[in-house]
Design goal:
- The chain is of the alpha+beta class and 260 residues long.
- It has a single domain, classed as Sandwich (Jelly Rolls).
- The protein is built from 11 helices and 8 strands.
- The strands form 2 sheets. Strands 1, 2, 3, 4 and 5 form a 5-stranded antiparallel β-sheet that branches. The protein has a 3-stranded antiparallel β-sheet with strand order 6-8-7.
- Helix 4 crosses helix 5, helix 5 packs antiparallel against helix 10 and helix 6 packs across helix 9.
- The protein starts with 9 loop residues before the first helix and ends with a helix.
- The C terminus is likely disordered.
- The structure holds zinc ion (ZN).
Length: 260
C-alpha cells in the first residue's frame, strides 16, 4: 500500500536527482501514529525519518515526568541526522505529536550514503544546524515571551511542519509541549478563536487567519522559519553544488548501489 511519497519531504526532494534515486532504494514507508515514541533519551537511533505529513516533537523529559518541547520536525526536516553523522545516542525523546507518514531509512545505509555523497552529507549538516537554531530559539522563547505569542508561534511552526492548516492536536497536548497548564492554553485559544484566528474542535485546531496569527506571534516564528528556509536555498561550499561521489571503501550495500 502506498502511504506516502518521499518527494513530499522537502529535504529529500531538494536532493539532486541522482542522490534521491540512491536514497529511494533504501527508503521505506512508515505510519507515524499519534503519541508514539520514536526514541528515548540515550537510545541508540536505528533509523532516520523523513516525514511526509504530521509532526514529530523533540522533547526534554524532566525527572518529574514533565515534558518540554525543544523543536518540531515535519515535512521540511528529518529526524536522526546527527546519529547518521556521528553515531551517538539520542539526546532527547522524539514523540509523534501529529499523526502522519514518513520515509524511513536504516541508519547504517544513511551513514554510508552520506559518506559517499557530498550533497547528502551537506543536507544532513545544514539540517542539524537549522535544528540547533530552532532549539535555541525555543529555549529563549519559553523563557521570555508571553503564552499567547508562544502559542501562535507553535501553531505556525506546526503548520509549516505538517504542510496544512488543520492540525490534529489537542489543547492538552499543546499545553504539555509548551509546559503550561491546560487551562492556560484553553484561555488563550478561546481568545484566538473569538478573534477569528483559529477554530478548535474535538481533536483538531484549524488556522483561519494566518496573517493575524503571524502578527500575534513573537519574533521566534519568523526567525526559525527564515533559518529553516535556508536549508533549501544554501549554496555554500558544502551546498547543493557539490554532487560528486567520493572515493570510499567498498563492502557495504548502500555504497554498492552507487556503482550499480
Ligand atoms: Zn518567542
Amino acid at each position: 500500500m502506498l502511504i506516502g511519497n518521499p518527494a513530499e519531504n522537502r529535504l529529500l526532494s531538494s536532493l539532486p536527482a541522482e542522490d534521491l534515486k540512491l536514497m529511494r532504494r533504501h527508503l521505506r514507508n512508515a505510519v507515524l501514529a499519534s503519541q508514539s515514541i520514536l526514541f528515548e533519551t540515550d537510545d541508540h537511533i536505528g533509523k532516520a525519518y523523513f516525514p511526509h505529513r504530521g509532526a514529530i516533537s523533540l522533547v526534554t523529559v524532566l525527572a518529574s515526568g514533565q515534558m518540554v518541547e525543544n523543536a518540531t520536525i515535519g515535512r521540511d526536516g528529518m529526524l536522526g541526522g546527527f546519529a547518521a553523522l556521528d553515531g551517538q545516542p539520542a539526546t532527547c525523546r522524539a514523540i509523534v505529536h501529529i499523526e502522519g507518514t514518513a520515509s524511513t531509512i536504516d541508519m547504517e545505509s544513511l551513514r554510508q550514503i552520506a559518506r559517499a555523497r557530498n550533497a547528502v552529507e551537506a543536507m544532513l549538516l545544514r539540517h542539524e544546524r537549522a535544528l540547533l537554531a530552532q532549539t535555541q530559539q525555543v529555549a529563549a522563547c519559553n523563557a521570555s515571551h508571553a503564552l499567547e505569542a508562544r502559542l501562535c508561534r507553535w501553531l505556525l511552526r506546526a503548520r509549516d511542519a505538517c504542510g496544512g492548516t488543520t492540525l490534529s492536536s489537542t489543547q492538552e497536548a499543546i499545553a504539555e509541549m509548551l509546559s503550561v497548564r491546560r487551562t492556560s492554553i484553553s484561555l488563550v485559544a478561546h481568545t484566538l478563536q473569538q478573534a477569528g484566528l483559529i477554530r478548535t474542535r474535538r481533536g483538531h485546531i484549524e488556522i483561519l487567519n494566518e496573517q493575524a496569527l503571524r502578527d500575534s506571534a513573537c519574533e521566534c516564528y519568523v526567525a526559525t522559519a527564515a533559518r529553516h528556509e535556508r536549508l533549501f536555498t544554501s549554496t555554500g561550499p558544502q551546498g547543493d553544488g557539490m554532487q560528486a561521489g567520493r572515493e570510499i571503501s567498498l563492502g557495504n550495500s548502500a555504497v554498492a548501489d552507487l556503482r550499480s
